[in-house]
Design a protein that fits this description.
By secondary structure, this protein is an alpha+beta fold. The chain is built from 12 helices and 21 strands.
Amino acid sequence: MTMFHVSPIPPDFIHGAVEIEQREAGILPHRLPAWARAQCRDAQLAMVQSQPSGVRLAFQTTATSVELVTLPTKRNYRDMPPRPDGVYDLLVDGRLLQQASAPGGKVLNIDMVSGASTLEAGAPQTLRFTDLPPGEKTVEIWLPHDETTELVALHADAPLQPLAPTGKRRWLHHGSSISQGSNAFHPTGIWPAIAAGQAGVDLLNLGFGGSALLDPFTARTIRDLEADLISIKIGINLVNLDLMRLRAFGPAMHGFLDTIREGHPDTPLLVMSPIYCPIHETTPGPTMVDGKALSRGQLRFRTTASEAEVRQGKLTLAVIREQLKEIVGERALLDAAIHYLDGRELYGPEDNARLPLPDELHPDAQAHRLIGERFADKVFGGGVFKAVGFNS
């Protein structure tokens, strides 16, 4: 059998990345450009923006066998059970047909208490997808949403061609680890991917775990990217890190939106407040790892603050929702394309009673699906993005 080899993988095969870095082993998709990464030396941001949430390889082919060579970076948290290997989803003409994982690669050892980390070297791994349907088809391989992945090569038993223009609207979404996909099982199971799939739009996911912090470089990145639809989900990370007080939040939020509007003056823009999260509804941060649970091999989070600290200007989810609604309302007087969505419409107290957050912060796989389906229905199906993005 003749195999066709693609190495390096051409940029027009890669969708959902902001920038591609050439490395010794292969290419690394980034979700922030190099100039933005240079403005923040935070190890958490560096890690999560390199994890390819929403990034996928896409091509046309008649191949029935495809191999992807990757060099993943695993995370190993001290005192925690081993994390499952990242999942790769293979879709044919939009349908999920196969899944695979790469068991080896580099290992990033992390101490969650001290924050210290070390990186162990590793070798590339080969994933094989066989028995694909015959004939011409669109193949997508969605990369793990929570595992940094260098792309080394593609092999197939027929030629591979880049996709022809689809005409899909591009939806650019920015949010926290929930938007990146924490606690989802696979990359097309994160809520933005579910919503994008149902709405028939082209997803560019700038969900950064622990890093939706109104950073000016993130706003400038969004400003400079092509987008037909933009949504910003903000709040939980500001509370998690106890990053700013009420006095700073309003001007910072306005500044973030002002920057986006410099590049997208008329683009439909949705500002979303946090989903329901009991530990921070009325209690500020900072959020800490629960040491007692960690000693039992469980990852759970808790707050170290008290409700009384709200009087000092500390932020809670309730405070942020109130502020966001007011800010968007004020801006909407002059900006007809800006809108507000209360995150509790996607996941609220009743949902929490039925599908509680397993670690006190992040929804599980079932709740991701609920959030994605509700977003598709409320925003694309009958809301602010309906006229410009929804395919019923």
